Amino acid sequence: MHLTPSGLSVPGPSRRTILRGLGGAAALGAGIPLLSACAGSSGSSDPKTVSLGSNSSDAVPKKAFADVYKAFTKSSGITVNVNTKDHNTFQEQINSYLQGTPDDVFTWFAGYRMQFFASKGLATPIDDVWSSIKGNFPSAMQDLSKGEDGKYYFVPLYTYPWAIFYRKSVFKAHSYSVPTTWSQFLALCKQMKKDNLVPIAFGDKDQWPAMGTFDQINCRTNGYDFHMSLMQGKASWTDKKTRATFDNWAEILPYHQDGAVGRTWQDAAQGLVAKKAGMYLLGMFVAQQFTKAEDLADLDFFVFPEIDPTYGQDTVEAPTDGYMLSKKPKNHAGSVKLLEFLGTPAAEETYLKGDPSVVAASTKADTSAYTALQKKGYDTIAAAKHLTQFMDRDSRPDFTSTVMQPALQNFVRNPKGIDSLLSSIERQKKTIFAS
Amino acid sequence: MTAPITGTGSGIPSTPEAAAAPPPGTPGTTASPARRRIPRGHRRLLTRRDRITLTLMAGVPTILHVALVWLTALASIALAFTSWDGIGFSSIKWVGLENFRQLFTENPQFWPAVQHNAIWLVVLLLIPTPLGLFLAVQLDKKIRFSRIYQTAFFLPVVVSFAVIGFVWQLVYNPDTGLINSLIGANRPGHYIDWIGDPNLNLWAVLVAACWRHTGYMMILYLAGLKGVDPSLREASALDGANEWQTFKNVIFPVLKPINTIVLVVTIIESLRAFDLVFVFNGGTQGTELLSILVTNNIIGESSRIGYGSAIAVVLLLISLGVIIPYLISTFRKERRA
Known about the structure:
heterodimer; A: D-Maltodextrin-Binding Protein, domain 2; D-Maltodextrin-Binding Protein, domain 2; 2 domains; six-stranded mixed beta sheet; four-stranded mixed beta sheet; 19 helices; about 15% strand; B: mainly alpha; MetI-like fold; two-stranded antiparallel sheet; 17 helices; globular
């Protein structure tokens, strides 16, 4: 920003000097985007600093991350230069950011979204980091951190489960019991409706919550392998199995909150807070909406009930956030040190102290300070046979954002036209995955 | 060709067009030698510095214009025939008309988007434009507090579309919004989903668009009415015309240049409609617009740049289809005048 038009401030400018200044300013203006792109990593050629691009713009995680980096500086003497960008902006600009002059290390998500940039050569493999941190992570986390070429590209920091959240006091007052099978779940929905509760709170204005519902039902109906093959564009959306998932969904759709397409997830969560809704299928971050301590203590969850006994409840959706190393880090050695540090249980414990709405990705991290909800989340993830990320992390983002989001909204509104919807998805999927 | 030119030249010799006359080769043969000397004198007055300054003044904007408008537009047209994920130029693949084939046959959002843009235009022309004219005529009558009304109606125009979208989204919120709370439609079983229901949401958002556009139209017409020669009103009053007759036969025809501006502004507004809807509900089912499809495909992680460009080209063609006939007719009229 210090580059802005100096020509304009010449004392006592005549008409022509102004013109000259304007010409100069125009020339500078053309250069500013390039220069400001450099500014991000300008400080990191020095071996004592590592630059880090972060998407954690919310106050709570931002502060928690700052504590982690402080601890790293204390132990290694290397300063971490953090460039925090607004969460959504960071995601939207990720393509151009990684192609320009990115920071040495950047925050990102596990799954296809990580593998995509790895296969495009926009990230550096970090097998050297993993040789020292491998023992800290369960095998499911190790698999999540690998690119398609089998090399490691990702260091996970924290994760959280998707499940059905409910309030213990509401279940107690109506003497409901936690359903473990599909028929129990349906019966519970029916009973809640009779008791004048909204059985399942739902808001899909932001377009992604419906993807979470689909993931749950599909994993229970068709199992992990089919779900992943569908996400990777291999299995067909017109397959009978996919159709069965939508049929199951259509069965519980009448128990969802009305007018979902116009409601944000925050508003839907308020239904649960106000005890107007009985259940809510969402990620554990729903806890952020429970601002009163006694409400938060009342919050509990159960994993999505079994539909097909072959698959039981073996798959848990647990989106994982962590770090990657950009393609040409200025300070490679320092970055490796930072990533090794971030892969330790100590770093995760420091983070969780500041942000209690998630759980550590490492199984070695100390769980004694966890709340009851965190403990349950941790156990659920640790017990899972398969972990999925989320539809838009397991599949191509261009496919999920331009095809699946509108298609699922369409389904939620009008569950009758499943067949034409599925064949439309399949046609679009083929062209996108072919490109 | 020659007849109208000589016509103006001999008929009204003192019009600015005839006096300035530097464009070479136009009426050169008919102009007198005295007139031809004037531009040459001007040229001698230009020093080298002046010429450099002039070159810069004309050159810098031209370069910027070519680089920022023409090159980018042409690049976007070229990209419409490719498939590109935005990562490295080597990944650009030529696919011919494939993007357009997909768009016209496979994309379930494309035709609704075209339709919504068209509805947007028709509604803006039919509702806020006459309403704005009506308000302008009322305010032009120098009624009491007219300044206050004027400000009140114009206020929405000052507010950005993003803010308007946000405010109306609160009004329409299914659970806590103003409308549903007032009419008691925020209970299960009674929901009116203004934002999500595709039969309603386009109209809901159009109410917000009209709310703003009325003020805009009002101010344009008000400016036009202030410019109407009062002697015209007087003359028509003397001829015994009533208020409606005066408006219909005298005032409205005088407003013709304003009507052209209004038409152009409205067409542009309806084609570029984006921010309001994007904030309102992200262009979900029922409110798809071409501009939103372009953004959803290009910006963000999806990065279907070729495909998005193809939609942009369709939008460009539609704009050209509207604007070129308009320009041709205006230039033809100007030449005739």
